[in-house]
Amino acid sequence: MFIPTRAAGLDALDEFVPRAGRDYARDRNADLGASRTNVSGLSPYVRHRLVTEHEVVAAVLDRHSLSAAEKFVQEVFWRTYWKGWLEQNPEVWRRYRRDVDGFATGTLPTGYDDAVHGRTGIDAMDAWARELIDTGYLHNHTRMWFASIWVFTLGMPWQLGADFFHRHLLDGDAASNTLSWRWVAGLQTAGKTYLASASNIARYTDGRFSPTGLATTARALVEEPLPPRTPIASDDVVGTIGERIGLLLHEEDLEASSLLAEHPQLTAPVATAVAADPGARSPFAVSDLVAAFTATAVDDAAERTLDTGGRSAQVLADTLPSTVLRWAESEQLDTVVVPYAPVGPVHERLGALRAALAAEGVGLVTVRRRWDSAAWPSASRGFFPFRERIPALVRQLVVG
């Protein structure tokens, strides 16, 4: 369904743009099966920034007014909002990781194996599980139904459901996946749950599914209070830039040209490389589809990312600090520049890398995109206050 290259992502964007206005607003919630012309299908590309949020919104607003394309533009900003919120509340991610690690080394709940292999006996749930495994994708509305049935009908831990999605979704990222599951379970907006119903499922699947036996009540889950939020750092570039710069891309951001254009002081890397580790999403096995999509996206980014000598980027064999250090030493680098990675597995990886490079006298500099710097600070509360900021953000980031 998804060809993991920037060119394919731009083609998908061009194809979708005519439908991004009122057609999308009217039809977006329907899941009518594999042929999904009512949604964009851009999320795997945006998730890896093969195509950027700025490019998507700019292309849509070049064809439609903001009022006509409001619903679609809001969906793009939802992903930005989730990232900004988790950036300010990293303890949520740390707790989630600890919980999943605990399940991986302990005993899994009864019914888990049946749920992840499409054997619950709930026809819709089983079809969706198989679709996720086979395609690496589920319609957004279907993800909400699935999560609700998982938590409230099957009574299984939300963390394991979020992990199942994260291991199989081509567009799965730490923020939008984790926080969407928390929202369904009543944790993200305290006390507010999402309860799937057979009538709603039947309506938006055009009668393909109308499952029986679903929970009719949804008691919100509870958790220990979170610590105070962490303010967004004001600096877009963190670290000291040396004389011999190497650019290292990762799976959170695979589009170097626009990133470097925002920071002209970094536009002359003497070496470039790309490294990814999709398996770090989970202690359980990550799907072959996710691994293959990421590997091909990395190869595509390597071909497009040239150093000052015109060489394509080197694809590193793994993401171990020792591997990155060998690359840096072979190119005689004093600075490795990486796109800023939001809270999640890559962020964790870069923390370990920074210490290893510093021990050998090589600096690690993180570079944050203007899009994130402008939008993330507004994600300190719920989405609705953030939504009020979207027109101003559009003027600042796209129109202005």
UniProtKB/TrEMBL annotation:
Record's keyword annotation contains Flavoprotein: yes
Cofactor or coenzyme needed: FAD
Domain annotation Cryptochrome/DNA photolyase FAD-binding: ranges: 72-195
InterPro entries xrefs: Crypto/Photolyase_FAD-like_sf, Cryptochr/Photolyase_FAD-bd, Cryptochrome/DNA_photolyase_1
UniProt key word Flavoprotein: yes
UniProt keyword annotations, A-Z: FAD, Flavoprotein
Protein name: Cryptochrome/DNA photolyase FAD-binding domain-containing protein
Lineage of the species this protein comes from: Bacteria, Bacillati, Actinomycetota, Actinomycetes, Micrococcales
